[in-house]
Amino acid sequence: MLEAQHIKIKVVGEYRCIVISDIHSHLDRFKALLKKVDYRYDDYLIILGDFIEKGTQALETVRFLQELQAKSERVYVILGNCEYALEEMVDNPKYANQIVHYLNRIGKGGMIRQALEKLNIDIKKENPEVMQVKIKQFLRPYFQYFKTLPTILEFNNFIFVHAGIENRKDWQNSSTSSLIEMRTFYQTGHCLDKYVVVGHLPTSNQYANAINNDIIIDKQKRIISIDGGTGVKSISQLNALIITGDGDRFKLSKEYIQPLPLYQAVVDVNVEKQVVNKVAWPNFEVEVLKQGKLFSTCKQIKTGKIFKIKNEFLYLNNQKYCLDDYVDYLIPLEKGEVIKLVGIYGPYAYVIKDNEIGWVKYRYLKKVN
């Protein structure tokens, strides 16, 4: 079992600090973001946990982080719940029978699946206990690395932690579960003068009627949330918080990578004033009231709101209709305006305009070369 560790550093003079969270095995996206922010070895680089799972480059991501740390003492990697839970599942014999279930649930990618591929193990034929031992032996060097990672990093005016801290003066005594798994930190807050910077939950979860993966800087709560949903959300981005400081003075800026194709409006698209409805975690269950050819009339179970949902977004989970990251917003456009294309669904396109996500008819768009 991995243990909580606390590191405290004080930087005197000018510095630049880049903070990235929840890479989730998307190494190519991570490298592209480092290039975009012009990362250099004299920068401080802080990775806020959950750098593995949910993507196809888990082992490669760990090795790349180790390479970065070997090249610079200013790189800090913080433990997230994914690293903690994976090590516990592989290390503890009582979880041997859960490994196959875990693989079926997460789909492609992840450290265990990569280990199985390297070891040529067929999960349908191998004994669970024997398989767990083989995986543990293969992943031992990675788990040894995880054991060196802190759960908290204090850095000048900031506290960096994966999920959050408990709202108490002796916050250093927060449970490991709170530090890496807390789901309510943005709501419960903290009582410190410093900013607490977290990942763990996609920032889009904090918006009632919009899908927005941008970094949230809440000056009143002194909370900065930076998880852009990579590997978790169907619409996502990988964010970087950039802190430019001089002692206790600092400025904040942000950058992101969102690899989506660009399209341009070929006509003006006017829409009437509308009330926007959103379906996303944790209120993702709906009841289908009337099935339509393109859109179905549905009721969001948690809120009781009734609105139309594009049929392709509906799926069954435990005999209940669900969907993720959906808004019924119709996007207004001016001719020549450039947007990002999320997907094409029949005659409609799901697009992003200035961090707003919604629908427009596909025939109103053309691809930007």
TrEMBL record:
- Where would I find the Calcineurin-like phosphoesterase domain in this sequence? 16-116
Any GO CC annotation of this UniProt entry: cytoplasm
What Pfam families would the database entry show?
A: Metallophos
A single Gene Ontology MF term assigned here is: bis(5'-nucleosyl)-tetraphosphatase (symmetrical) activity
Biological process terms in GO annotation: RNA decapping
Q: Which PANTHER family match?
A: METALLOPHOSPHOESTERASE, ZINC-DEPENDENT ENDOPOLYPHOSPHATASE
The name on file for this protein is Serine/threonine protein phosphatase
The organism of origin for this protein:
Thomasclavelia ramosa
